[in-house]
Input
Amino acid sequence: LAKTTQPISMDSYEGQEVNITCSHNNIATNDYITWYQQFPSQGPRFIIQGYKTKVTNEVASLFIPADRKSSTLSLPRVSLSDTAVYYCLVGARLAQRFGAGTRLTVKP
Amino acid sequence: NAGVTQTPKFQVLKTGQSMTLQCAQDMNHNSMYWYRQDPGMGLRLIYYSASEGTTDKGEVPNGYNVSRLNKREFSLRLESAAPSQTSVYFCASRGAEGNQPQHFGDGTRLSIL
Output
């Protein structure tokens, strides 16, 4: 089972780019990597998912190196409303593992 | 457009009491999940149901039972609540095609005294 490790917290300022890295050394061949955002008193919300190389959507990019043992969520030009906890998930179904979450605080 | 609905939102129990947490999804998803979320530990899988009629234990199943009543509903039961089960419980569902992401409810905050 993939063990996922991510930083406990990060601080940033409005307008900066934020990169959050998740380590998953035991990732299985078929595992996808998914990132979620969670606000207080709400459930996690899907941000982005990828298998290898780079994936980009309207809110974020996901970078996955060739060995797939880590992944980096990139949030461009963050705002105060991006203050939240970000979770990395590796795998699916019974073999999945969430990271403990990274609390991102965006300051004015 | 409800998505995943969990009831109740809050509950306080006494040690030894029983309770069932309800979850329903309206997205016609096959897979459903129950998680608990504790400070510093992320989300840990309690039970998983790949389809109606099937359930599997996850990482932390002790003290819990589940029922996949039909395709829409997946309930979690605490038969004899313990203070260690104080947590926030999330239900999620996922479609069967490809590697679709999970959709989460807004959780049930459960305190056991």
Remarks:
- The CA atoms of residues 77 and 100 of chain A lie 24 Å apart.
- The mean pLDDT of chain A is 94.
